[in-house]
Amino acid sequence: MKFGVVTFPGSNCDYDAYAAVRHVLGEEVNFLWHKSTDLMASDIVILPGGFAYGDYLRAGAIARFSPIMEQVISFAHSGGLVIGICNGFQVLTESGLLPGALMRNEHLRFSCKQVYLRVEHTSSPFTRACMRGEVLMIPIAHGEGNYYNFDGDIQKLEDNGQVLFRYCDRSGALTPGANPNGSVHGIAGITNAEGNVLGMMPHPERAVEPILGSADGLKIFESIMAAVKTTVAGR
Amino acid sequence: MTSNKKAVVYVRLKEGVLDPQGATIQKALNQMGYSDFLSVRTGRFFELEVEGGAADIDRKIDEVCSKLLANPVIESYRVEKV
Q1: pLDDT averaged over chain A?
Q2: With bands split at pLDDT 50, 70 and 90, how would you rate the model's confidence at B1?
Q3: Dihedral, CA of residue B70, residue B65, residue A64 and residue A128, to nearest 10
Q4: How far apart are CA B23 and CA A66, in angstroms?
Q5: Are B45 and B10 a contacting pair, CB within 8 Å?
Q6: Cβ proximity of A154 and A185 under 8 Å
Q7: 8 Å CB contact between B41 and B11
Q8: Chain B contacts in chain A segment 29-88 (CB below 8 A)
């Protein structure tokens, strides 16, 4: 199977994502340049972390109009798997592929640390290798990860099971202290209504080997691989 | 010869959307002794210059505001012609 990692000017986790796929998973992966309009037959597209276009104007606002994003948007609309990590999540909300917006962290500081995430359900292609309620340790590194949406829209996300990851403590409890940025309902990651597009602030590609402090991020990549293999086998 | 058109666009967070920067500035003012400053909301503005002959200039300005300058999910905007 083929992964594609988009590189915008200012992306800085594209090599981390590439290394996780190529060297840890041992799968094929290509960089997709922001000016290109070719997804290189990717089965899944990763929008990596960083500061695309310097985060000028708003994080993700300008990246959303790059040529490769037109392809990513139509790929997503046709059911292709897309995961946006950190800055990639911001690009996904700006492009309208995911609802809501990511605002400045409530405490205004850039947060770079390990956090715990609770897996809210496992019927998603991104969590099928996890257990419901499982706690993953995955790092965050962001200044604008404060997920915001209006009350009614949040309720829709909750009702549709679109909230996939929530910040929690080590035991899986949703405490205010476990929420690193002020996100509503402790949201760390959401999917679109169809479930094929995921945005998350934590970095699973930075948690793929014990030497990095955690290998819990692998579960998300393993879920994706299982999902893609099922789809390919079903074609 | 038509002269170029200028406009100023003000973008701000919608009512009810938390503005952590504004809240921090307001707290700082209070700490500085300006205890009668009850609220601060931040925003930004853009000065636009558009070629004079551009057709549908109002519609185009509106379009760039909603497409790019503001994020309609959390922000509202106001256009002021100069």
Answers
A1: 96
A2: low
A3: 50
A4: 34
A5: yes
A6: yes
A7: no
A8: 57-58, 61-62, 65
Q: Calculate the CA B18 to chain-centre distance.
A: 16
Rg of chain A over CA atoms, in angstroms? 16
Catalytic residue among A13, A86, A130, A168: A86
Contact A37, A70 (CB under 8 A): yes
A46 Cβ contact partners less than 8 Å away, ≥ 6 residues apart: A3, A4, A5, A6, A17, A21, A82, A83, A84, A85, A88, A205
- Of A1, A165, A159, the C-alpha closest to A85 is A165
**A205 annotated active-site:** yes
Q: Tell me: the pLDDT tens digits for A118-137?
A: 999 999 999 999 999 999 99
SS3 A122: coil
CB A86 within 8 A of CB A142: yes
Residue in chain A closest to B43 (alpha carbons) equals A57
Question: For B13, phi and psi rounded to 5 degrees?
Answer: -70, 145
